[in-house]
Amino acid sequence: xxxxSLTRKxxxxxIVLAAALLALLVLLCSGNGxxxxxxxxxxxxxxxxxxxxxxxxxxxxxxxxQEITLPREFDGVFADYNALQRQQGFDLAPYAGLPxxxxxxxxxxxxxxxxxxxxxxxxxxxxxxxxxxxxxxxGFMHGIxxx
Length: 147
Fold this sequence. Notes:
By secondary structure, the protein is of the alpha+beta class. It folds into two domains: 1-33; 40-143. Helices cover 29% and strands 28% of the residues. It has three helices and five strands. It has a five-stranded antiparallel β-sheet with strand order 1-2-3-4-5, sandwiched between helices. A hairpin with a 6-residue loop joins strand 4 (126-134) and strand 5 (141-143). The longest helix is centred in the first third of the chain and has 22 residues, at 8-29. It is globular, with a radius of gyration of 19 Å.
């Protein structure tokens, strides 16, 4: 099929199909196919459901909220944190210097350890980062996306 021989209607169908395919690819590649757009992350229930879709059981009653402004320059610990985010398909660089909200929940299915927390960073009701970490002195941190 040559492009010159397509009618306007056929060309419109080709464009719509190409856009749908592109949208599907974005969904499958972003955050390992788990996008906050699929969840109403404006609500506690939506954020807890998002974490559940990733395999984490979060205690909704333990929710804490913190408003922060991301640093303009990522260095040291924050550069390391953003490297972790990039490994799981997020990147905080476009949000440098902007305010965001951190929601923190106690994770109840991490081997009985009650010092494990899940954090979600939201900017304009969109998840832009997240982690699972322990509050213990010899603690750990890893991404929210299970590999």
